[in-house]
Specification:
The chain is of the alpha/beta class and about 450 residues long. It contains 12 helices and 20 strands. The strands form 5 sheets. A 6-stranded mixed sheet has the order 9-3-2-13-20-19, covered by helices on one side.
């Protein structure tokens, strides 16, 4: 039986998943100071910073399924300083200073996560060794050089640096590597350990987490579940892609899926041969994003985009498992590392990420409705959710910090188009990104399709 057929028989089970004691369901009416809807990274970081600032606060978190059920327990484990839209796009929307301030805050956030985990004794396999985007074709190498030059002109000469062929190949032993683009501003984490550790931490600080408690309705000062309700001074909506399933929100954010594979633990000699005996995040500079890391126990985790958007922003269970896309991710992994052809893939899974119409995340508050929210991270939420948690703390408690003036604060994205325009546009964009990579493979020149796509979305 081929490895591709075997992987398509694997169940939807994230490598990061581990059973934990179930928490009680909300049953009855209770009071709180802050009620947070969603017990993923955004909700948990917000609870942490709120309680760190004011330990007397009554903080309640309501989770539809279990802690870390969504993207927080299904991502690829990168805590990076990447922001979904380019700094040039941020400059167009706001100002040059705002863009520089944002990148500085994102860089600091990667370190902030490590600082808190060390301070609070949360073990999440945090390792900050940076991120290397390999250039494996002439157009990719040209983009790497252009990115460094553009960053320097923008005022960030140290954000990125080009690695020439020998140095890049000695860092990651992927086939066809010509060079690469490196930044120090990225750490790797174990997503499951992080989300479970944060949950246990905030509970030890006095927060109460209810699981299996889906919120049916939010109104000023109160949220309702099937079995109960919580009255609070402020509601925090921390539901990321699942926001699209709430009444009236299907055009506020759309769910897109990222799919992932994990191998068996690799022998130390094979890791050394492939230059994977480290904890540096990596991918290559293709347009349809892929991403990889080696876990603390020596497994290769390799994922990518490309799963189709579902009509009406629906989120059926089977959207996590697209055999054809998992197969393409496997093929790409083998293209990177042919020596892994006989290595067993032990896990495959998928997860939804939230995308706003302009690809820009937000952290917002509406005091009239007594609701605050954050999300739309476009797959870059492991670090951004920490920054969002600190900003939400400041907005709710009216604490003044420089991060309160970042461009994502109270950012309002336009609504997505109604169907069928939404379905056609999003899936056309995914197809265009894939075609851009094919175009470059055959022409050996930068893709014109990709240039147009970047202008239309502002994403990078």
């Amino acid at each position: 039986m081929s490895a591709k057929i075997e992987l398509c028989q694997l169940p939807n089970k994230p490598l990061w998943y581990a059973p934990s004691p179930s928490r009680e369901r909300l049953d009855g009416a209770i009071q709180a100071d802050i009620v947070i809807v969603g017990a993923g990274y955004t909700g948990l970081w917000t609870a942490y910073y709120l309680l760190k600032s004011n330990p007397s606060l009554r903080v309640v978190l309501l989770e539809k399924c279990e802690v870390g059920f969504g993207a927080s327990g299904r991502n690829g484990g990168w805590a990076s300083a990447i922001f979904p839209i380019s700094l040039h796009r941020v400059e167009q929307l706001y100002s040059h200073h705002a863009a520089l301030h944002l990148q500085s805050a994102m860089n600091e956030t990667v370190d902030e996560i490590g600082r808190v985990l060390a301070l609070e004794g949360v073990e999440a396999d945090y390792a900050k060794q940076g991120f290397l985007s390999l250039a494996r074709s002439a157009p990719q190498m040209a983009r790497a050089r252009a990115a460094v030059e553009s960053s320097a002109r923008f005022g960030l000469p140290d954000q990125w640096r080009v690695l020439e062929g020998t140095e890049a190949r000695s860092s990651i032993g992927a086939e066809g590597t010509l060079g690469g683009l490196y930044t120090e501003h990225c750490a790797l984490i174990h997503p499951g350990k992080l989300v479970r550790g944060l949950a246990q931490l905030v509970e030890s600080m006095g927060a109460k987490i209810y699981e299996q408690s889906a919120v049916l309705q939010m109104a000023p000062g109160v949220v309702h579940t099937e079995q109960g309700s919580v009255r609070a001074e402020m509601i925090v909506r921390a539901t990321e892609a699942f926001t699209s399933q709430q009444p009236g929100k299907s055009r506020f954010v759309i769910p897109l899926y990222s799919l992932v594979l994990a191998t068996q633990p690799l022998p130390p000699d094979l890791l050394a041969k492939l230059r994977l005996n480290h904890r540096m995040a990596f991918n290559d500079m293709r347009h349809l994003r892929v991403y990889g890391q080696v876990t603390a126990e020596g497994r290769l985790v390799f994922g990518g985009r490309g799963a189709p958007y579902k009509w009406g922003s629906s989120m059926p269970d089977q959207a996590d498992m697209v055999d054809s896309i998992h197969g393409k991710i496997y093929d790409t992994m083998i293209e990177f590392f042919p020596a892994l052809r006989d290595v067993r893939v032990t896990h495959r899974w998928g997860g939804a990420l939230g995308v706003s119409r302009d690809w820009c995340p937000t952290v917002s508050i509406d005091r009239s409705s007594r609701i605050a929210w954050a999300g739309n991270y476009v797959g870059d939420g492991v670090a951004t959710s920490n920054l969002a948690g600190r900003i939400l703390r400041n907005l709710i408690l009216e604490q003044d910090e420089d991060i309160n003036r970042l461009p994502l604060v109270n950012h309002h994205s336009p609504a997505w188009e109604p169907e069928p325009l939404r379905w056609f546009g999003i899936n056309s964009g995914l197809a265009a990104a894939s075609l851009s990579d094919i175009e470059e493979r055959y022409t050996h020149k930068p893709s014109r399709t990709a240039m147009l796509l970047e202008k239309l979305t502002g994403a990078h």
